From TrEMBL:
<feature type="domain" description="Nucleotidyl transferase">
    <location>
        <begin position="4"/>
        <end position="230"/>
    </location>
</feature>
<dbReference type="GO" id="GO:0009243">
    <property type="term" value="P:O antigen biosynthetic process"/>
</dbReference>
<dbReference type="InterPro" id="IPR046981">
    <property type="entry name" value="G1P_cyt_trans"/>
</dbReference>
<dbReference type="GO" id="GO:0047343">
    <property type="term" value="F:glucose-1-phosphate cytidylyltransferase activity"/>
</dbReference>
<keyword id="KW-0808">Transferase</keyword>
<dbReference type="InterPro" id="IPR013446">
    <property type="entry name" value="G1P_cyt_trans-like"/>
</dbReference>
<dbReference type="InterPro" id="IPR005835">
    <property type="entry name" value="NTP_transferase_dom"/>
</dbReference>
<dbReference type="Pfam" id="PF00483">
    <property type="entry name" value="NTP_transferase"/>
</dbReference>
<dbReference type="InterPro" id="IPR029044">
    <property type="entry name" value="Nucleotide-diphossugar_trans"/>
</dbReference>
<keyword id="KW-0548">Nucleotidyltransferase</keyword>
<protein>
    <submittedName>
        <fullName>Glucose-1-phosphate cytidylyltransferase</fullName>
    </submittedName>
</protein>
Amino acid sequence: MTKIVLLAGGLGTRLGEETALKPKPMVEVGGMPILCHIMNGYADHGFNEFIIALGYKAEVIKQYFLNYVYLQNDFSIHLSNSAIEVKQRPDRDWIVHLVDTGLNSMTGGRLHRLRDQLNKETFMVTYGDGVSDVNLRRLLDFHHAHGKLATLTLVRPRARFGTVDLVGDQVVRFKEKLDTESWINGGFFVFEPGVLAYLSKDEEVLENDVLTRLAEDGQLMAYRHTGFWECMDTMRDKQHLESLWSSGSAPWAARKVCT
């Protein structure tokens, strides 16, 4: 079974007061933590075992999943013996491992701390703040086909400024556009256990240290995704995702959701 690692330990300082009381992956879009949006995307492709690498305000994510069944369903409590009877069960058959990987660990360091859980088979990794309509099964198939240790997903970011269509001097339409000149790391990875040999300490950054060494050794391949991708890095990004969700046609939305 392919395990999914969610890097959910960062501070998220550019989201201001949103992350004063909660970690960035618990910031809500459409009334649901963005972490759950991401997990829904993997589950919709048939992946259901997750390892959440915790750090900043780890207790908030732990409490969310510890109480998830009771918060989402009706239940009865037998006061005589404290037995709890849940009236319904979630339709998601998920296994969620919650692992504290250190308050100050960097992204590579968090994976290093998970090495004993990841040393048996291919695993997938993503951040706790990015949503996409990338086909995760095709990504995994691409990875297995090339035979290297690592695959990263490349995406074209949304340009900061949109464009305006004119008829004469009359504005007829505003359009967002993609930065068609650049490919960037979209944060959806597939790794073989051999990648763990490239990790050694908490201070290592996955992007700058580990991926660089993999590339130098000819062990890193790129899967190009030309569809939707968005990272919730700032309040402006959050508001953009909220507007897409409110429209009822969010490109990343899974067929089933956890709320």
